[in-house]
């Protein structure tokens, strides 16, 4: 462990912040890679970049054992689309690993990614996965369901809805999630770096229990003391397409939810050699 230094891109995002806290508690040195300055934990070295092809970036990453590549997006805008963020930046990160002699890359893809997918977000994650597999680097690709913890994106969305008085359930809400806690995710990411059993593997990153979205939303609403409101899927998609800033769920949030993606947590437990816990929701 003492010889390890872990580079984390997307270090200021939800998973990045939680992973860095975990690594800092384990006294593992980290090099962060972000486009803005952010608070540092103990044993961190910070790299702020304005573009990933900057000449001196690779030199600053020298000495890192692995890169945890957490830059990604699940929402497209005119200036930041899936190709640019999920595919091209992954390519840049692979080049940086090679130039700085980092031999291992850990990447969080999406649960449900499949070669025959026709869904743009999954296509971008699939293409990013392919680039990583073909790179010749040692890799672990984790296909994640919902990662939950303090301030996770789904909880933040539901909390925002609660502040307006109700939690919206699109359609019946019978589609399922398989949440995993960000604490377990941090432990698993470290395991990917140190445990050869996870070398060159694609593994589902899911918790041991599935839960319907309706039950997830009902529990959340009860805790916050607000109502749930069911709306038709047609209305949910109409709002996402025509009133994106006011819609409860984005277009691709809906696609992922309604897709009802579940996975195999036992393989992950077997490879890691420890139990994954159902998160407290
Ligand atoms: N959270 C989940 O439940 C979940 C599920 C499946 C897959 N994933 C994947 O896991 C990874 C981490 O997720 P997360 O929840 O931590 O996401 P997040 O909170 O949205 O963080 C994403 C990070 O990517 C960075 N980023 C986005 N666009 C960028 C760009 N154009 N250039 C440079 N940096 C950029 C952001 O930087 P700034 O801080 O500067 O904005 C942020 O640090 C992502 O690849 C995501 O797709 C997450």
Automatic annotation (TrEMBL):
<dbReference type="InterPro" id="IPR016040">
    <property type="entry name" value="NAD(P)-bd_dom"/>
</dbReference>
<dbReference type="InterPro" id="IPR051207">
    <property type="entry name" value="ComplexI_NDUFA9_subunit"/>
</dbReference>
<feature type="domain" description="NAD(P)-binding">
    <location>
        <begin position="10"/>
        <end position="159"/>
    </location>
</feature>
<protein>
    <submittedName>
        <fullName>NAD-dependent epimerase/dehydratase</fullName>
    </submittedName>
</protein>
<dbReference type="Pfam" id="PF13460">
    <property type="entry name" value="NAD_binding_10"/>
</dbReference>
<dbReference type="GO" id="GO:0044877">
    <property type="term" value="F:protein-containing complex binding"/>
</dbReference>
<dbReference type="InterPro" id="IPR036291">
    <property type="entry name" value="NAD(P)-bd_dom_sf"/>
</dbReference>
